[in-house]
Amino acid sequence: MKGRDWKEYDELNVNMGPQHPSTHGVLRLLLKTDGEIVKEAIPHIGYLHRSIEKIAEKISYTQFIPYTDRLDYLAAMNNNLAYTLTVEKLMGIEVPERAQYIRVIMAELNRIASHLVAIGTFGLDLGVVTPFFYAFREREYILDLFEMCCGARLTYNYMRIGGVANDLPPGFMDRLKDFLDYFVPRVEEYNQLMSFNKIFIERTAGIGVLPADVAKNYGVTGPNLRGSGVKWDLRKNLPYCIYPRFEFNIPVGTGMVGKVGDSWDRYWVRVQEMLESVKIIRQAMEQIPGGDIRAKLPRLIKPPVGEVFFRAENPRGELGFYIISDGSPSPYRLKIRAPSFCNLSVFEEISRDWMIADLVAILGSLDIVLGEIDR
Amino acid sequence: MKYLRDIFEGIWTAIVGLGITMKYLFTPSVTVQYPDERIAVSPNFRGRFHLKLDKCTGCQACARACPVDCILIETKRGEDKKLKILKFDIDVTKCMFCGLCVEACPVASLEMGQEYELSCYSRKDMIYSLDKEYLEKESEKVATKGELPPSGEVT
Amino acid sequence: MQAIFEILKSIYPLRHLSEILLLLLSMVIFSAIILGIIAILVMFFVWWERKVAGHIQSRLGPMRVGGWHGWAQSIADGIKLLLKEDIIPANADRMLFKMAPYIVFASSFAAFATIPMTRSLIGADLNIGIFYILAITSLIVIGILMAGWSSSNKWSLYGAMRSAAQIVSYEVPIGLSILVPVMAAGSLSIKDIAEAQSGGIFSWYIFRSPFLFISFFTYYIAAIAEVNRTPFDLPEAESELVAGFHTEYSGMRFAMFFLAEYANMFLVGSIATLLFLGGWNGILPRPMLPEFVNFILKSLFLVFVMIWLRWTLPRLRVDQLMYVCWKVLVPISFFCLIGHGVWMVFMGEA
Questions:
Q1: Minimal CA–CA distance to A107: which of A70, A66, A79, A145?
Q2: Closest CA to A111 of A256, A294, A235
Q3: What pLDDT sits at residue A112?
Q4: In whole angstroms, what is the distance from residue C304 CA to residue C302 CA?
Q5: How far is C209 from chain A (nearest CA, A)?
Q6: ipTM of the complex
Q7: Are A78 and A312 in contact (CB under 8 A)?
């Protein structure tokens, strides 16, 4: 047949996305399939590019904070935190104690909210719709808490360089406590509905195994790395903020129902991390002191000439900011190391020779956010 | 043996899951019927802008703080050496409701209210002339002798 | 249908028409009645499914159309679908594309001809009624294949191929599980099978022997797969294949698929009711409720369980689906078939 290999006719190229229910945004996967089996899945990105890094060079340091909300829009507080910590490291600012605690509470709350979306959509990918709604119901309580503090429900813009925007409003602590008491039993329900459901285990255990060395080579971080059994969490290993003051565990994948590093392990690490975050918040609520919420800083922030790199543990992995300052009010260059970008890069490696249905499960377990990949 | 255990596990975990969904079938739902009922937003919600024109000094601090340059202020030096505001427009098609302008205002004249239903039929309506709005409201207040409900009330 | 024929015959002006014409007329009237019942039930199922799903998920479901809990929602949806533009993809095989929804709907509707909703409300009491139903519902797969192929969409084709494999495989456990009550009653006529279960809850076949009890569940699970419901909804797996074989359909053609899906649910519920749950016979030996109400209540309960399962369980994968069919359901139903034969011999029922 015109000198073409028979194999070429055997394969069917299918575009999965950019408009597809389970690509979690505008991601396009080019699939080479043989029946149900996917020989190769190549991610194509860039549909959500907004040139955030370039915009940063035109605006002041404070003005960039709302843009960080729009990187990983499910964990805006953590993005705020990572960025402000970077600038503070560059300028050598000491942040007041109370602000430190507020920051940790917010970051951990947002971690819970983000993981709730992650496990909810993971369930949705596997065809179980109900936990998704339960997860969003719980997340709504967290968003209410955020709204009390900063007035927004998704793009918070709450952290400031040298502190936070507002003090905690009256009644916040009570509502937070109520939420935590309400939330912990709900996790058990997710476990019964999803984690230990036989069909769910069959669909995820042993699927998309990500070995630890491959994960390290690709720069995979966050729950995906820990799901492969690597105990690496910046909150413990390279502590920032006041994390050393709290006691919490780092859950890692153990291959409880399948192999170490499979989709179920990545999912299970997230479920456990939510409970660890609850622990951190409980401790922070006890220890939080009074006092200032913002360091005394000039209105226009002009860092000294120099460069800085800082990374923080986001729900999806290590979010790093690299800033070169030329002493002017806006950065000379700002580079973002987005965790989802690195996590997605390993997808091609681990998605070979699985079925289409597994592909959806693997992508869901990697938990990517396209806002951060394309920036 | 594993075969039988798998079947048993499959059935048992399905029954456990069915129990949970059945429990929620008979618990009251958490959602509200939106246009009929509303959940009140928090007092410091970042919604529609309001300007207290009498307080505003025309210092342009908000316009400078804005990351997207959506505030346009035109002023004229009046006879009493004070700045008179000719124009105070916020283009909400650009605005991302970050609230940096409100934070920057030294006299707390720019505020964000609690209205969140900001959709409209034309792009012209998305440019809020806050100074004119304020003047209109003032004149209405004079007409109704201050019996107007306070702005930003959410029912 | 016989009754309608007799009534028509007794009406004066019609008496002079030929028998054939009267027979045809009574057929049309009967199918209109059944179509009416099915259409109303489907409307109800669509609304019910959305309400149940809503409340399971801590939501309310449709609330606005029609006043009380949005009861008119499916009517509004139906009107919307009727008025929508009918889009046929440019590269579609137009004839097959147009035909597919009708085949799917017609074959699921035709199956109701031999379903006795009461002792007398039955289209045709064939002596091979259950066999006819098995045969006619197998036609659905042809419609689905046509829809998937003619859409000229790769995802639709995937859905259609999955559906073909799934439905053809699951016919086997369905057939085997149906054979058990057939064996117990000694007849292929659904009416006879249901008739044999009269006299209280303990004469229902499901409680007659352990093998009948198990084969009720194998039938029910296999039938859920047959009508493509979660956890076996692979042909339309939303998160994988967008919407499977009906991705490209819109408007009334889509409504046909939708109607067929819910009609099939009811069909499965009613067959399970007739073969295992005593059909129109009540719980007590003495008749308490009208036959039709008994039948509908039991079928509705089975449909509710399907809805309930859908909003609880994840979806299986293709190979797991086949595993469940060939390695779990088929051996178990074979076991039940033989077991019940032995049981009948020893209990002296044969």
A1: A79
A2: A235
A3: 92
A4: 5
A5: 29
A6: 0.82
A7: yes
